[in-house]
Each structure stands twice: as structure tokens, then as C-alpha cells.
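Example 3.2
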Amino acid sequence: MANQLTGQELYRWHTFSLGGERVWASDGMPITPDAAINNAPILDTVIVCGGIGIQSAVTREHITWLRAQARRAKRIGGVCTGSWALAQAGLLDGFDCSVHWEFLAAMQEAFPRVNLSSSLFTLDRDRFTSSGGTAPMDMMLHLISRDHGHELSAAISDMFVYERIRNEQDHQRVPLKHMLGTHQPKLQEIVALMEANLEEPIDLDELANYVSLSRRQLERLFQKYLHSSPSRYYLKLRLIRARQLLKQTPISIVELSVVCGFVSTPHFSKCYREYFGIPPSDERLAAQTQPQATSRPVVQALPMARSMSLLDQARDESTFASIKILKP
């Protein structure tokens, strides 16, 4: 769209897989890349697209290539769980980073040198990362604005009927906020405190004091809006965090029980089995044996993408070359 609106080839793009083979997206859609990563031309921007099972999909070959690209390219980034691959390659150490909220806990445990953020996207020096959903759209519009000015990014937003370009200060909407909106700020504050203190749970009386409520008022608030007692909801948060870490990291069950605030491993296992209907050891085994069908034999190779021919096809559009870029 940037090329169409300016009538210039501002961007040219290619897709790559490890060996040039066809790969399958998380939704089952097949993608035939232009080439293998080792046959990639000189790139100024590299974007890692992540999906389900990113932890087991990243190989030593991926890491070696990404590190080489980080030395050569102008910038390197990831969308959704693509941040995991960059972090595993050590390319986000000391950098601010965004990732889908479901992976925040796992990345915090696996990569303590990465500064994890709940922002929709993060631009930090020559690194850029975004959460999932539509957040990559906002991030790319900001990158285009950096490259070629706000007028072009705004015009692209209009073409995609994108109501508002969000910025780095916008945060991901966690499920509770989505459920309650802005009507219960005290309840949201309490849950935020719970989420921030899973390893050492805060006493319920202390939680109530934080928001100037009595314990009875706190319990009524939870029952009315979350249909649960505060202690039961707190336990659920800790178990959900434990399940994320159990399935997404190699952390031991013993250590995991401590990280999630349980007094002992047997107590953790009992609570986990009662809530999820499966022992944590079986959950870990199932996660490790789940097939990761991220690639299949290539059926037919496609030629390298020809962005100029695509640009020519857009010449009949009324918006073609409607944005003029002033050269310095």
C-alpha cells in the first residue's frame, strides 16, 4: 500500500523458511516461501513471524541466522511470539519487548535479561516487537511514519479503514479489563495486585486495605462480578500462571510450585489436578509430546516476489501516487 500510494517502490519484501520448504501457519494455511534463509539477499529489515509452538520450532540454524542478520540489517523485529525467537537468540537482552499477553509469564521466566512490556508494541533502537492480533498493523504504521513521514502512514491507515493508529503507550487489554470495562476500578486494582504477587500471595485483609475496603466488601465485590471468592480467584490466577509456565518453559515442577506461591509441591499438584483435571506431570508430558507440524515437504517452489510487477498492477487505482514524499 505504501508503494501504491506513492507510486514508488519504497518497500520490497520476501518470505523465507529454514530450507525453503513450504510451512504451515497456526491456522493451517500453507505458505510457500521465496527461498531458504541461507539464500536470502541483503536485507535491511528482518521480521520474525511467530505462532503456536514457537519454543520447539526455533532451531540452532534459526538462531545462527538471526544473529548474523542482527549484525547486518538496519533493524530486526518480531510479531506475536516471534519475540521468543529473538530472545532465544539473545537479541533482546537489555531491550524493551512486547509479546502477546499469554506469553508474558513464560518469557519473563525464560529470558530475565529482556525488559518485558504489556504495551501493544515496542520500538527500542533497532529492535521492534509487537503483541498479536491487530497490534502489528499499528507497529508497521509507526515504522513507515519513521521511514517516510506521518502523512503516508495516515493515508495507509485510511486505505485500510483503520480507525485509529495506536501508539506505544497503549497496552494490551487483559481478559479482566475486557470483561469489566472501566466500571470497577477497585476490583481491577486488586486483581492487578494479585497478578503482580503470585510468588508471595498477599493476605486478603491487606488487599482490602490497599483499596480502602473491608474484607467483607471485598468478598461481595468478587462474588458479584467474578462469581468467586477472592481466595479462590487468587488460586485460579496462580494455577493459570503455573499452566503457562508448565507448557511453555522447561522449569521443573518443584521450582514452578514455588514460583507460583504454593507451600509445597504435593499441595500444588493437588490443586492443579482439582482445577484442570490432570496432574501437572501429565500436562508437562502432553506438552512435550504434542506434534509440531510446522513444515511439510515442498510441493512446488514459487519464484521470488516481484514487488515492481505488483506496483504496476496498482497503477489503475485512483489512489496511485496520491502521496508525495519530499526528499531532503
